[in-house]
């Protein structure tokens, strides 16, 4: 069974940066689409950024130019570098994995104070 281990969330002031990591175990990783979604209180879960096995990336308009997704297939890890964070980025961030089925991480809290 695929397991996803997230890390890197926390509290940061507006304008600051954080880096999220998600390591996958016991799975094919290089062919998978992996990435990040987020869910703020009272809102639906939304896509933040994803990276396909072919190397294509897709970002939410709200994070373009501020967030960068990257992956290390050898380490089976996907990263989300977040810069110029805003209070509206506050949410639980979920790691996403899709290869013959979708798996979600447990979520990591990101809080941006104004």
Low-confidence stretches: none
Number of strands: 11
User: From the helix content, strand content and strand pairing, which structural class follows?
Assistant: mainly beta
How far apart the termini lie comes to 40 Å
Q: H/E element string?
A: EEEEEEEEEEE
User: Percentage of helical residues?
Assistant: under 10%
Categorize the overall geometry: globular
Helices and strands in order:
Elements: E1 3-7, E2 10-13, E3 18-25, E4 33-39, E5 46-51, E6 57-59, E7 67-72, E8 77-82, E9 91-98, E10 102-104, E11 108-113
Parallel strand pairs: 2-11
Antiparallel strand pairs: 1-3, 3-8, 4-5, 4-9, 5-6, 7-8, 9-10, 9-11
Describe the protein in words.
The protein has 114 residues and is an all-beta fold. The chain has no helices and eleven strands. A hairpin with a 6-residue loop joins strand 4 and strand 5. The radius of gyration is 13 Å and the shape is globular.
Task: Report a brief summary of the structure.
With 114 residues, the chain is mainly β. It is 0% helix and 54% strand.
Keywords:
single chain; 114 residues; mainly beta; seven-stranded mixed beta sheet; 11 strands
